[in-house]
Design a protein that fits this description.
Blueprint (H helix, E strand, L loop, with lengths): L4 H10 L3 H18 L3 E7 L2 E6 L11 E7 L2 E6 L5 H14 L4 H19 L14
Antiparallel strand pairs: 1-2, 2-4, 3-4
Helix pairs in contact: 1-2, 3-4
Length: about 140
């Protein structure tokens, strides 16, 4: 495995043995991931939040919806112009009904559906644009 010098320095600060350092980091990342909820609303401004989800192959099947990784295994949901909140709800319901995902992913889909439906019914959901830069 070829790693940048800065990463080798980080690994050395964790454990002189690179393999052990990698295992320690992987274990910590696994514990952190397990402690996170699959769907969270993260406040980004007063009375404004963004939905952050875990990795989901099923969500990637929704036309016009994209997952943008913002941290390891944490994704923002972005939607193309014209995709309505109601359409997202219907597609989430269809994915759950098709029962094509495993139990963890189905739990994520159900929680996301609950959150979106609840926010829509409370008239607390809005779509705003996010600037995405191609690199």
């Amino acid at each position: 495995m070829t790693l940048p010098v800065r990463v080798l320095g980080i690994l050395a600060s964790i454990d002189p043995d690179r393999a052990r350092a990698i295992v320690k980091l992987a274990d910590e990342a696994g514990r952190s991931a397990a402690a996170r909820k699959p769907v969270e609303i993260v406040e980004v401004a007063p009375r404004r939040g963004l939905i952050v989800v875990s990795e989901s192959a099923a969500l990637r099947k929704i036309e016009g919806l994209r997952l943008v990784e913002i941290a390891p295994s944490r994704f923002l949901i972005t939607v193309k112009a014209g995709l309505s909140v109601e359409s997202i709800e219907v597609q989430l319901h269809d994915l759950i009904e098709e029962n094509a995902a495993g139990p963890e992913e189905t739990a994520l889909l159900k929680e996301l559906l609950f959150q979106i439906r609840h926010q829509r019914r409370s008239k607390a959901v809005s779509k705003e644009e996010l600037l995405i830069i191609s690199v």
